[in-house]
Amino acid sequence: MNWRSPRQPLPDFCASPVLGALFVVAILVSLVMLFAPGHRIGVHDWGLAGLLAAWLAILSGVVLCKIRLVLQKLPGVWPWIAAWLLLMVVIVASTAVIWHFDHVLEIQLIESSRGRFLLGIGGAAALVSAALFRYLWVLGEWRSRREALARARFDALQARIEPHFLFNSLNTVAALLRVDPERAEQALVSLSEILRAALDESSESTLGEVLQRLDDYLAIEQLRLGERLQIKRDLADLPRELVVPRWLLQPLVENALRHGIAARVTGGVLEIRGRRGTKGLEISVRNPLPEIPAPHGTGHGLANVESLIRYHFGHQASLNITHDNGHWQTTLRLPDAYPHR
User: DSSP string spanning 215-245?
Assistant: First the structure.
């Protein structure tokens, strides 16, 4: 890190992974002190080291957790420097209190002099905690890059969807204006709702809103494909309030129509099903394959969807693709709640 490094937020010291890391640091410091010259190694020393490690980890974690928001207001990398200095103050002050009571009460658990004891623990804590903070900094940068990549893929997906909607929908409206003005008006209403969602800068939405926009899209495609497109829905079991990526299902359905049903002379049945189980949600999109194999697409849409669900839900989410009995099916598996990141 340098003084002009980009601002990197402090980690959430209240989170269990960070508290666990602090505990590991405290254990390492105690073990270093155990193996320092002049210390005997025994069960008594191991017990004392564990007690000291637990105390330092809990106290340091609580202090950093409570003051994190205040430190985060500092400019540049100063929040990290201030957090490290505060951690050192807590550790040295705590060990000084422990040494004081040990000698005042004549418990004689610590044989070293005060200066040597504080210098040993302070030096070990400084080195190990500096390494820990460096690790947390690098981990934070990696997460920031991952989020930026996911956002870039979302923007690319959104940019790809908008022209496709506009082109097909306007062609449909133009074809219906003279023969069926009422249906043309319905198509324009559906198109306006889709574009409203596309222009929204938020990358997230509720599952209920996603399904509503999907209905608008299918309404336009139904007008375009006519009797060639038949739709079977079974989505009543899905939780409408679940927060999901805004374009969660759109690319899957678009892929099923473009490379499946629209490529067939007789069209086919598009099946969209969702169920809620003990292990989470499962949403599947199934379509018949064309009689003559169509050229494969780039696969960017499905890759982007997979990237988005991994960003939003982590490894609890998955996207599976299967094809059997002349049908192609994509299946999304999602957790039934929004995880803490």
Answer: HHHHHHHHHHHGGGEEEEEE-TTS-TT-EEE
* 329 and 190 belong to one structural domain: yes
Alpha-carbon distance 155 to 217, whole Å? 19
Q: Taking Cα atoms as reference points, which of 50, 23, 22 lies closest to residue 34?
A: 50
The residue whose two tokens read 């991952």 is 146
Residues 223 and 315 in one domain: yes
Domain-ending residue, one of 144, 161, 193: 144
Per residue in 95-145, pLDDT (tens digit) is 788 777 777 776 666 666 777 777 877 777 788 788 888 888 888 878 777
Q: d(Cα 137, Cα 152) in Å, to the nearest integer?
A: 22
Backbone angles phi, psi at 264, to 5 degrees: -100, 140
Let me know if 212 is exposed, middle or buried by CB neighbors in 10 A (0-12, 13-18, 19+): middle
Range of the domain at 185: 177-334
Mean pLDDT value of segment 70-78: 85
Among the three residues 144, 166, 185, which one is the final residue of a domain in this structure? 144
> Which DSSP state fits 281?
E
Burial of 215: CB neighbours in 10 Å, binned 0-12, 13-18, 19+: middle
Number of structural domains the chain divides into:
2
Distance CA 244, CA 337 (A): 10
User: Considering the domain boundaries, does residue 152 fall inside one?
Assistant: no
Residue listed under structure tokens 């004549």: 106
* Residue 300 · residue 255 · CB < 8 Å: no
Q: Would you say 300 and 308 are in contact if contact means Cβ atoms under 8 Å apart?
A: no
User: Taking the CB of residue 332, how many other CB atoms lie within 10 A of it?
Assistant: 23
